[in-house]
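Can't paste images in this forum, so I'm doing it all in text. The chain is below; anyone willing to post the predicted structure tokens underneath?
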Amino acid sequence: MRKYLVIYEPGDDGSWGAYSPDIDGVVVSLDTREEAVEAIRVGLAMFIEELEARGEPAPAPRNLAGYVAA
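Text version of the structure:
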């Protein structure tokens, strides 16, 4: 199982968005962070399944994130 970096961003209206910089085109925006977490997980899995069904490889995870104190 591959692990992809996912970025979660709060909206000004209280909603949450999520996307993975490793996989273009899979983006979600929902009312809560919990909903966004589940939706991006399902969306990424469906996208990868579709690629594999067409005989195409899934993108390799390559991005990392971290925090720096400044």
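The CA atoms of residues 1 and 45 lie 10 Å apart. The chain is about 30% helix and 25% strand.
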